[in-house]
Amino acid sequence: MSRIRLSPLLLLLAVLALAAAGCGGSDDEGSSGGGTASAENCTPDQLQTTTAGQLTVATDKPAFPPYFIDNDPTNGKGFESAVAYAIADQLGFAKSDVTWTVEPFNASYAPGPKDFDFDINQISITAQRAKQVDFSSPYYTANQAVVALKDSDAAKAKSLSDLAGANIGVQIGTTSLDAVNSEIQPSNDPQVFDTSNDVVSALKNAQVDAIVVDVPTAFYLTAVQVPKATVVGQFSAPGGDQWGVLLEKDSPLTPCVSDAIDRLQSSGELPAIEKKWMSNATDAPVLK
Question: Matching CATH topology for 55-141+241-281 and 144-235?
């Protein structure tokens, strides 16, 4: 076979073309690292998981409905538990091959090595977080909701401007804080709490007039944790609020997990899981 000689210019162009191809497939808001998924490298025997032959999945504790039922991620019940096992199944892992571990929400997107393969915990995909960790394709898009005690003035709000004078509580590090500042623009700085439990306690004890959380959480809070509260309404977070599975920065698993989510979406399995566990998320009135 004869050899084809390339001129120096053609060699340079070829190298540049390969480099450009290698830079594709990520942006400020999306997943990053890992290259392109293929059926050959997305099987349990090929994936570089934390424990060989097993998939280690992280979430926070306590784990609340409708994302997890009975504070038990292993039972497959609840939206995110079901999504995690569906991803595992797409990757070829049996349910018995999935191990759960605890990772606090605020620690999940800190830079550095992770002791899990992926974390699923209502984590919004943001450009800032994507500098430190990888995100999969989004598996859910959430609106924000205002929750207030039924006998409070905030419960009577019909628009976002009606809440401008309210004392609003949110959890630190969440997109709810950005949504409050951007969309409600309250005259008082929001009260920021370390955990979701602290936010709920502040509402129960009337330390705040209202709290802002994602819509599914709002329905759970008013049904179970704070029955004296009501979902005042919902509104869109700035730029939308898409949740992604979180992985270590440049994880080789990222493209495989994204591909699994994309296939679950296109097959209709992911929408079916969402409908089963998140069906009440459209019932709240929209605040503008």
Answer: yes
